User: What shape does this take?
Amino acid sequence: MTLTDDIKKQANKLGFELVGIASVEDSQHMDMYRAWIESGSHGDMGYLSRRDTLARRADLKKTLPSLKAAIVVGHDYYQEDPAGIPDNQHRAVVARYARGPDYHSVIKKRLIKLHKWIESQVEDPIACRAYVDTGPILERELGVRAGLGWFGKNTMLINSKRGSYFFLGILLLDLELDHDDPFDSEHCGTCRNCLDACPTGALLGRDQSGAPVMDAQRCISYLTIEHRGYIPVELRPFMGNRVYGCDICQEVCPWNEKAAQIGTASAYQANAKLDGPALIELAEQLLKIDEEGFRELYRGSPVKRAKRVGLLRNVCISLGNWGIGDALPVLGLALKDHEPLVRGHAAWALGQIQSNRAKILLLPRILFEKDPRVREEIFLALIAFSD
Ligand code: B12
Ligand code: SF4
Ligand code: SF4
Assistant: This one.
């Protein structure tokens, strides 16, 4: 047994189902990455395009100058949908990865434990940096280099035994280790389930180099989590009842058929309030609290990233897509929320419901509403009634 083998065993003991060691040469894919940024496909995720972070993505030694090896771990998070989800339109769908505790802290704590254990074995301090999603690291590229899987056409890193419902974590180390062979084949073949199933057409297939390409600006995950402003009107209907993230391109992937048998890692058991909550109750709850109350409510959950205003915007769209009169009272309240973004999307949702009561709620707001964009949404909603 080498030290590398012992480390892998220890990573498994810490609960990481996948572990591999990546070599630490410069990224081979920066041309593609830069072209992707230049095309604007990253939308308003400015952290992906900052010049200093581009250089760090290209060369990991800019993050840890004494870097010798990168440990890449994968942590399963699959869980079954609660009964009725996603078809029951009065309930909200939260993507699987976000239904339980925040993976950033779960994985980071375990990576730090792994680092401490390695130091105890070599009896020396070892410089290290641990990352889970938050740093300028091309985590999936490292995953391929560590032999964990291939880039599917849905852009996910897919492992032939475990599918794609796993998070990645990276431990950069000033320690020589035996690195794994990169995963040098791809197993999508002629399948195009994800491309056909994506409701917004965000997945664009492989480019000439073989890289899977996504227009993130059309991705429901981006729109519901990362995007801060108005959601383009033409994309709102495609969100259905998805209020946070999206799993469609993973659900249709044949490599995930085994996911249900693998089961749910206990670390990410769903929190009841995120496991298909009723849309109306969720809206009522969010309307009663402020941003601080929101942070408190979703403490320790990935969902806090959307902020109250973002989640409420998404919930309004889902209520509009549901299109049922029961949602009128709560949308009437949302039409008076202190956030223009919420008022604007509530107006759109009322326009989708198309009843006289919806019109009665909208009409007086024309007199009181000062925000020009919200006024526009109200006008458009009212015009929709005369169609
Ligand atoms: C920004 C981001 C997003 C954006 C953009 C997604 C995207 N596809 O780029 C949005 C908000 C849409 C998003 C959504 C999701 N995300 Co996200 N996201 C990230 C983040 C922070 C950066 C990804 C990035 O740099 N994208 C830019 C593209 C260009 O880079 P890339 O995906 O790595 O693509 C590489 C290949 O194209 C390759 N390449 C280039 N040329 C060539 C040539 C060949 C031949 C090949 C094969 C490859 C190749 O090079 C590129 C750079 O390495 C990573 C964490 C991280 N730091 O890496 C998490 C991450 C990718 N996300 C993750 C998850 C879980 C999700 C969601 C499932 C969440 C959800 N349920 O809503 C969805 C999935 C949507 C999807 N189909 O991708 C996981 C993925 C785990 C996995 N098994 O793959 C990550 C790794 C976070 C983590 N630590 O676990 N995400
Ligand atoms: S996460 Fe949803 S919207 Fe985004 S690419 Fe996949 S199927 Fe399309
Ligand atoms: S659904 Fe098909 S094409 Fe898409 S990632 Fe999975 S195997 Fe590849």
Summary: The chain has two domains: 1-80+97-236+244-262, 278-387. The longest helix spans residues 103-122.
